[in-house]
Amino acid sequence: MLAHYFVAIFLLSTINSNVYALKAYSRYQLWRLYVTNNEQGAKLLDFSHTAYQKNIDFWSNNYGTNMPIDVSIAPESINSFAEFLSSDDMKIKYDVIMKDIDAVIERQNLIHKLKPSSVFVDDFAYDKYHPIEEIHAWIDKMVKTYPKLATPFKVGKSYEKREMKGLKISSNKRAVKVDGTPVNKKKAVWWDGGIHAREWISPATIIYMVHALLSNYDKDPVITYFVDQFDYYILPVFNPDGYAYTWTNNRLYRKNRSNTSESGCIGVDLNRNWDYHWCEGGATHDPCSGTFCGSKPFSEIETAQVSRFISTHNGIFVHYINFHAYSQLWMSPWAYTLTKPEQFKLQDDGSAKAVQALRAVFGKY
Question: Mean pLDDT across the chain, nearest whole number?
Fold first, then answer.
């Protein structure tokens, strides 16, 4: 009995030492704000660009009236932020949905380490999060397990020289048009996740989907059809440096790990570093902000290499999904303007069907 007691104490001590190696968010709170008019939304958007100066972090990127906005607040800023929201020109109501973010992070770590996996296939737990090294090993495992369908590819190396490693899924069947005639060249789909480091569910979701495609090929007719119709290029972790940093230093870190012009402010929001209408709307030129767009378009090696990889594949890509976490949104172009793209109806119809399919599984997005 005494031996079991010491084993338990040792295990909990080991877990706690791993948890507390990360940046602590003790007494940080998560608030849900309810915007009722466009003026409130605009003022919150403007405030969000400098909110980091008060250790306030906007987790939601939608500042409209149709969805609540979630914001994490450091303990020293709770009173002042409450006063700001209740001021005469704001009058924004809110709920406190987490009273201690650090306790939630600690609980997640404990469950992750102690709870056995219920979806364990090919020596991999599909219902748990994995560090970058295990994800790369999983890619190698998929290639070995499904050699007729899966091949690895490398986009390049990150700022800190980590591999940007992906997986291609392709069958040897020829794609056909709607009328049944064969196409000259099979088109391709690109999926990536983890462009924002802290969004762990993003790589985990892609990993789960990849395994579903591979393991159900020749078993499920719908999956078989789509794998035969398209090649799939999947990059589970777009931002390997930032993702690794969330495992070792700061669970809520967002950007990559490149140096900036501002001493002490590290990283660029890779999702805002693309060249098309660069840094227009929802981004900032402030290197200390979580939405810093970089010094110029494709200033970051990660976005530059993904762009180069896609561009060198001779226009085969017809579909790109960048998986994120939070906000329960299916988003399509454009973000920088309210002007609709030429093929908006096609995009919107596809988005609506995707949302309906997602909702049909669990009754929510």
Answer: 91
